Amino acid sequence: MVHAHLPTGGGAPHVRRMKRKLYAAVFAVLLIAASLGAYRIVKRRHAADEFGRPASLHPGSGSASADPSAKLEDPLQRDSLPEYQDIPAATTAELTPAIPTDENRENWLRSQGDNEDSRYSSLARINCENVNRLQVAWTYRSRDGAANIQCTPVIANGVMYVPTAGNYIAAVNAANGSEIWRFKPAGHPAQRGLVYWPGNGTLGARLFFTSGAYLFALDPKTGHPVAGFGTNGKVSSGGVVAPAVYRDVIVVANWNVILGYDLATGRQLWKFDVLGVPAPGQEDVDRGGNDWGGMALDAKRGIVYASTGSPHPNFLGLDHPGRNEHANCVIALEARTGRLLWSFQEIRHDIWDLDIPAPPNLVTVMHDGKRVDAVAQVTKIGNTLLLDRVTGKPLFPYRLRRAPVSKLPGEATYPYQPVFDLPQPFARQVFTRDEVTDLSASAHAFVEKQIAAANFGWFQPFEPGKPTAYFNVHGGAQWTGAAFDPSTGWLYVSANELPWIMTVMRVRAGVARDPNQPPTAGETAYRQFCAGCHGNNRKGIGMASPLLGLGNRMLDDEAIEIVRNGRNAMPPVDIAPDQRQKLLDFLFDRDFPQTAASDANARYTYLPNGYPKLLDDQGYPGCKPPWGTLNAIDLNTGKIAWKVPLGEYEALTRLGVPKTGTENFGGASVTAGGLVFCAGTRDLKIRAFDKKSGRELWSSKLPFGGFAPPATYQVNGRQYIVIAATGGGKLGGPTGDTYVAFALPDSIK
Question: What are the φ and ψ backbone dihedral angles of 596, each rounded to 5 degrees?
């Protein structure tokens, strides 16, 4: 429910700089205070062992107990392992020959363009020669609120289907932007995608999307729920990504499970638990990743592919020891049965929040002289996993490299992490002092001061009370993923390249509650309003942050403001003032009599310091540019064909600084007209690039940030480019309710 992030964006540049400095100062004071407070508590209550560390940290729960297993890992034992393990590529004989696809590349029926998530269109009326004449064709405003929309629309038969800022699903005339109908489901509909299914002769067309705790099926002509599908057109199944339809099965990713439903009735057919079967006593442990990036479908072979995120909580692995087998993975399932075919893991035991955040792309490439069907998966750390579609074997060899041991008592890092040379990484992966910004002497000095006592390095684990600086918490790639051009075998991905500075601290987590006592009024309110996202144990679920130890990092007024108004992806909570106060008393562990006995029963845990970016004195990223890029990767060779900055800080341009690119959350789409379209930058522009060279050919300012990939379609012979332009989200700033469509003038349609 409560996300402890400092707000960013909005206001004039000098105001933003003042805010950033103030936030940085406040955070520094809070960090020092928390660290000193934790130190005093430890010194007073716990003896130190021979390593000078508290002897009371339980590796499984982070609770206070004299558990001798809470030891530091032995670096000598790790060093005794071979430095590298070589993983061979699939042999030529093992490669899966390509099957021609009959996917209609002129339609845009899934938010990712098609079943294969290509975001490619064979339309070419808009091309490199005339793209500079694009103009706004129409604007649709839902007029039901202002909120960040991360969903690409779908278009069928001249109608566009969209989620709105006010949490409706609306049908819009795709030629002029006029609204046809709207439907209000429970929850936040189509957060990152929806799908139009055209029907099969027996069943009529359907519009499928998840919202809140349900999967909905609507009649696309009327917007009415489909009778006979579940109860009143919905079945119990949450999630945020677009479903996939294979024959008579609709597949849905619902966080830690992937489910198959009967397309006609909504009856559940199968369930795949990403976490596997829990060990005894580990039923409440979040052991593996959830699918918040998306799915792709090989309709010829009946295989559905899903990407998974990191285990939770982020930055702390004590509660999910081991490899975490299906986290940070690409998973292939038989669409009819949910049977696991294969799983390929990138990062083992991820404690850095370096998920696989994006939907897989199904690609066909030339490899070893033959056309091969493969899966391309872009990742946060800037890798592109290129895997055989049927076997999951890599098309290029890679290595596992011996990784550093943990510096946190009770934590155990995984002994090896992967190194991929091909396809070439599209983002920097290790932050060092050589990467510190050289934008100005003052900027350099400001960043150097912040990292003076920090840890650095390849997969460097966290050390209590000491910062760790590294790249890629917001990517590399993000949930917007990549676009693939089947005519060339090139993949296009937007990326971020900025550093973060994380600190894990030992803090008081609260008082152990007596399970035999009835829940307090505050705990009851928490279960009603918050547990669905943050978990009954307050450790967070999916993208929702943990709320343990909230009193160490937030004041009442801050928490009340977030409950009232929401923050980032969290909506406002409609709760009465007296109930809200009881909720806060529970979150701050003060809804019971405070006694010496309860103080003695206090628990301690490790908590991260939020998500602080490493910024310079003017609020720019603390590393050398580029800070945001658009990349073309030739998957046939594994080589980067070109890389260009994506986005611009106009204030720096006026000072003569070459274009740096900006942090971005947009995602690319590619067309047969020779163009790559991409938005999502801090300068609020949508751009068109020559897909062969990366040369920027056109741009247009949007009313708000465009934080979803654009779609393209054709109505009455006229091609359009459309994008959700609502602002907000991870880059902050004002929000709106707008979709903008561009087209060529009528005279050249």
Answer: -60, -35
